[in-house]
Specification:
Elements (H helix, E strand, L loop, with lengths): L10 H13 L14 H12 L10 E6 L2 H18 L8 H6 L10 E8 L16 H19 L2 E6 L4 H8 L5 E11 L8 H4 L23 H15 L32 H4 L4
Antiparallel strand pairs: 1-2, 2-4, 3-4
Helix pairs in contact: 1-5, 2-5
Length: about 280
């Protein structure tokens, strides 16, 4: 059964979507030696490939990296870049920076480099005439799709951004017109941390959402009811849970299930028609 685009999900499906979002983690540790089945990896890549892309340009490619020697070379690039980044960190935070686990390149089952081919839509500039960077943003959407699908599959993903792009391009033989957007460590994990590692380690905290909501213009005041609704959701999420409560995010209000699609499954989707240009 294929759900109409206007159909909402039923309660269980909606809760699952929000759970994936709220429990997604940038995984740097807890990787296990377990391999990732090609069937699982295929589902994750298919999810990434169905990300929105401006002008339906689909500028992404996915370099799967399994070779241990090649990954060790990538890790060397990370270590070099990390030392280069250290002087940019505030002096009082450098000791904490050195302690942070910021990659799992060699520990994870495999790595994936997600790239953006900046010439793929060269003859069709729809949506890029005034914003030429939209191909890069579209590729980031593919990364997010991959990440959320991986969380639903119980697969950990860590984005390693501390790598010099030119050195990575040389190592992976990436052409000049192609930009590496994300270097991902992918693998089964022993656990998903209840909070982001950088929050647990005291590097940062989640900003209060009401302070980030503006009305009509930047710094515009207003939207008080909306901000109150956000605060109420936060209070619900922070409330003590009962013995059978598996809540990981603010509860989704119960609604009537869709009339023609009470549940969605991977096999039920018409994947050929599911992508839209946005």
């Amino acid at each position: 059964m294929t759900a109409r685009a206007s159909d909402g999900f039923d309660q269980i499906a909606r809760e699952a979507v929000y759970r994936a979002m709220f429990t997604r983690r940038d995984v740097r540790s807890h990787f296990t030696p377990e391999a990732i089945d090609d069937e699982v990896l295929a589902r994750l890549l298919l999810a990434a490939h169905h990300a929105p892309s401006v002008g339906f340009m689909q500028p992404w490619n996915f370099i799967v990296i399994r070779d241990a020697n090649r990954r060790e070379k990538v890790r060397d690039l990370f270590l070099t870049a990390r030392e280069q980044e250290l002087p940019e960190i505030e002096e009082e935070r450098q000791a904490l920076y050195r302690k942070l686990k910021l990659e799992g390149i060699c520990e994870s089952a495999l790595n994936i480099c997600v790239t953006c081919d900046r010439e793929r839509s060269k003859g069709s500039p729809l949506g890029r005439s005034h914003n030429p960077e939209m191909d890069l943003y579209s590729t980031v959407c593919a990364v997010q799709n991959f990440w959320l699908a991986a969380r639903a599959e119980g697969v950990g993903v860590g984005w390693v951004s501390i790598i010099e792009a030119r050195a990575l391009k040389n190592l992976l033989s990436i052409p000049g017109h192609v930009t590496p957007v994300a270097y991902l460590c992918v693998g089964r994990v022993s656990q998903f941390a209840p909070k982001p590692d950088l929050e647990t380690q005291g590097w940062g905290r989640r900003l209060p959402l009401p302070e980030l909501i503006m009305s009509e213009t930047f710094h515009g005041q207003g939207e008080t009811p909306l901000k109150s609704a956000v605060a109420q959701l936060n209070r619900l999420a922070a409330a003590p849970a009962g013995p059978d409560d598996q809540r990981v995010a603010p509860a989704v209000p119960q609604r009537e299930p869709p009339k023609e699609a009470s549940a969605l499954s991977f096999n039920s989707l018409n994947l050929e028609d599911a992508s839209a240009s946005r």
